[in-house]
Amino acid sequence: MNRTQSAELFAYSRRYLPGGCVSINRLVEPEIAFVRGRGAYLWDADGNRYIDYHAGFAPYLLGHADPDVEGAVRHAMEEGWTLAGSGTTPWEARAAEDLCACVPGLEKVQFANTGSEATYHALRLSRAWTGRRHIVVMQGGYNGWHDEVACNVMTPLEQIGPRVSRGEYPFAPMSAGMAPDASRYVHVLSFNDLGAVEWAFETYDVACLITEPILQNIGVVKPLPGYLAGLRELCTRYGVTLVFDEVKTGFRHALGGYQSIAGVTPDLTVFGKAIANGYPLGAIGGRAEIMDLFIAPDPKRRVLIAGTYNGHHMVMAAAIATMEKLRREGAEIYGRLERLGAQIEAGLKELFARYGVGATVARQGSAFCAYFMDHAPRDWHDIAENHDFDFDLRYRRALIERGVYHFPLPTKQGSISAAHTEEDIARTLEATEEVLRELI
Ligand SMILES: Cc1ncc(COP(=O)(O)O)c(C=O)c1O
């Protein structure tokens, strides 16, 4: 593929942007400058078209530039809403009501601009609510970029050692420059291991356990049967605030979040990404008595939430339109996403079997990941020990050369949108077959 324009744009932006792009986690090979997104497709600066399964790290559930969402945003702009930043607006109230109506466990919500802000607020609320300090996170989970949670996602095993059960992993920071004692109250455990959680709750005065209900930053690592219910039970028993980070799972799998599928209600939930179909929104919600700490009469108990752009009119309009569409057409949309997911899963499995590639396809609805190992992983250690990372990277890069965009970083989740078609999936499978022929 010719990518001359992409290379020129990267060279230009490197003069002023460290790395040549915003958010250094986007700095991958091949370097591509994207200029347009519509429906299931992305176009780069050289006019190459890609079927997009990366979806900008997953927000575009309805596809790029969904006409209903874009229409609502355009209308909001034409109406001249420049109201965020003063008092309240009908739109933020409406977005809050809609979100509470969608997710049964939410009694009250607040909005910020990103998932990271929302997880930050979840930690603060939990500490204020319980009067405790310690937090529990999962090895292989991602909950944002701030100090206490920016750790232990795709950590090399040399750094964390073998799997521990009644114990915790060393804190593996994802950044320099964190507060030197950022890890002091953070405990990193194995996902899918209730014994580890019980150990942590016995050992520390834990304020909250925060976890993605499915680990979707290392592909699609599902909870074992009973795991999420077990977390609920342990959190209730030990008075720990259970926080589900549904920034990736929320709305992608169901309007009620993955919690509605699992039948487990956390105390607090964090959303982002798909709830505004790609507009910058983070939300936190849950039990009213915890959320009301944002307005606690006692200033010593009151939790600060602030942000100039919180509740921005364009973003609220996008969220309202996204939720409206998903409520109106949810049965059709989620049914279709499941069918397309099943089509790609079956097609990939058939191809891997035919070409003798040891692989497993893990999937929940429209989120999928091909692992080059012989079973669906149960945690990060399982992946780190068994997955063929080198093959995964070559596979992804070869697909990109054939116009199928998976993020070129091993184990990153694939996301199908409502704008994808059976033909897109069929074309993807054709490209996959070409890639397997080339790589095997
Ligand atoms: C599960 C999860 N939580 C939190 C975040 C942080 O969200 P944001 O990038 O909007 O700050 C992400 C982002 O990828 C995520 O996947």
Number of helices: 13
Order of helices and strands: HEEEHHEHEHEHEHEHEEHHEEHHEEH
Query: What ligands can be seen in this structure?
Result: pyridoxal-5'-phosphate
Span between termini: 21 Å
Tell me, briefly, the overall form. Answer: globular
The second-level CATH architecture of the largest domain is 3-Layer(aba) Sandwich
How would you characterize the overall build of this protein?
Helices cover 38% and strands 14% of the residues. The chain is α/β, with parallel strands linked by helices and 440 residues long. It has two domains: 4-65 and 330-439, Aspartate Aminotransferase, domain 1 (Alpha-Beta Complex); 67-324, Aspartate Aminotransferase, domain 2 (3-Layer(aba) Sandwich), CATH 3.40.640.10. The chain has a seven-stranded mixed β-sheet with strand order 4-10-9-8-7-5-6, with helices on both faces. A four-stranded mixed β-sheet has the order 1-2-3-13. A three-stranded antiparallel β-sheet has the order 11-12-14, covered by helices on one side. Strand 11 and strand 12 form a beta hairpin. The chain is globular. The mean pLDDT is 96. Pyridoxal-5'-phosphate binds next to helix 4.
